[in-house]
Specification:
By secondary structure, the chain is mainly beta. The protein is built from 1 helix and 26 strands. The strands form 6 sheets. The chain has a 7-stranded antiparallel beta sheet with strand order 1-22-19-24-17-14-13, with no helix packed on it. The chain has a 7-stranded antiparallel beta sheet with strand order 2-3-4-11-6-9-12, with no helix packed on it. The two termini are 32 Å apart. Bound molecules: manganese (II) ion.
Length: 301
Amino acid sequence: MSGPMADDHGEVNVEIAEAHRATVGVSEVRRLLPRRERRTVGAWCFLDHYGPSDDAVPAIGPHPHLGLQTVTWLLDGEVLHRDTLGSEQVIRPGQLNLMTAGHGIAHAEELGPAGITRAHGVQLWVAQPDETRDGAPAFEHHGELPAVDLPGADAMVLIGSLAGATSAARADTDHVGYQLDLHGTCELPLTEAHEYALAPLDDVAVAIDGRPVAPDQVAYLAPGRGSVTLTAVDGDSGRCRVLVLGGEPWDVRVSMWWNFVGRDHDELTRGFEDWQRDDERFGTVASDLARIAAPRPPWLR
Ligand code: MN
């Protein structure tokens, strides 16, 4: 795919890409980041969109992370989070779980107390900068997030700021995350220094600067824009939500493997070996679910 090009009006074009299908546990997901052409958008380095499903088993046993933050955002359903810091937190739609791995953490996701098996949401990762990526792990739950009324859309601010409203969620780099609930045409203000990824969250296409973007696609906007126009293409079929991720472009070369983000294979190999020998680096999760073994890194075969 070619990069963004300026059109006759000097606007930066919208770059549209297809999701690729991946399997996580027993569920099929739409993977929208990373893509070969775009490894990161700001510090955002991973975006899976799963569901909606009526009979999913929202459970994944203890597994480690390092060098990244996991951002959990539900559109439906309920999940119980447990981690090696002792956190035990139910998350529901409209709430944010933000887990910072730093030098190492492990967590499990279990069926929530209401036993809801519907599952719809996104799993996001943010790569940590050098200043914090070897630091202490942490966990935050945000039960309420700032809401912003924009013409044509109700917005929720997951991370960063929008139209004067700022999320309390930790941000180690200059990046933002919003959910927009479109009910017309919305001129979304953008930060010119940021690049953006926009992904429809419902089974409805969204017009981005007049170009339809389907639910299994993602739109990329290069830096240099002050706004973008979003319109629900078929608002009759229900809600029309859009995820907006943005941030200052990263010139850091990120190395990703399994659940780890680092800078080179040696770091990832150490993470693999530490998890396989149950090193205290990742701690112990109080979960009845089975611990997930790491696959062998392909460069060690
Ligand atoms: Mn995880």
